[in-house]
Amino acid sequence: MEGEIPHALEIARIDVKMLPAGWHETRDESLRAFGDDWIRGGKSAALLVPSAAIRGEWNILLNPMHPDFSMIIFRDPMPFGFDMRMFR
Question: Regarding predicted confidence, which is higher, 32 or 47?
Answer without folding.
Answer: 47
